[in-house]
Amino acid sequence: xxxxxxxxxxxxxxxxxxxxxxxxxxxxxxxxxxxxxxxxxxxxxxxxxxxxxxxxxxxxxxxxxxxxxxxxxxxxxxxxxxxxxxxxxxx
Length: 91
Known about the structure:
This is Imm33-like domain-containing protein. It holds the Pfam family Imm33-like. InterPro entries: Imm33-like. The model has no long low-confidence stretch (mean pLDDT 89). 12% of the residues lie in helices and 29% in strands. The chain is globular and about 35 Å long. The chain has helices at 45-51, 86-89, and strands spanning 2-3, 11-16, 27-31, 40-41, 66-70, 73-78. A four-stranded antiparallel β-sheet has the order 3-2-5-6, with no helix packed on it. Strands 1-4 form a two-stranded antiparallel sheet.
């Protein structure tokens, strides 16, 4: 599920939640700043990867993780304890 027109934003976040319906990955993509409308769209992963292929590198992260992208670069990955683990990964 994504906020409508969010992929045009320079900064977005992806958050994976558990407890979703069957067939739902649990990912939500939203804007860092709330200037985008509150409308939501449901899209398939293959559609998302065509629009923003760099997202593929985070889609296998576990539930309760949050990722911040600036343009096509990862800025942060927060684990289930809200600890930014991105610095440890890129070392």
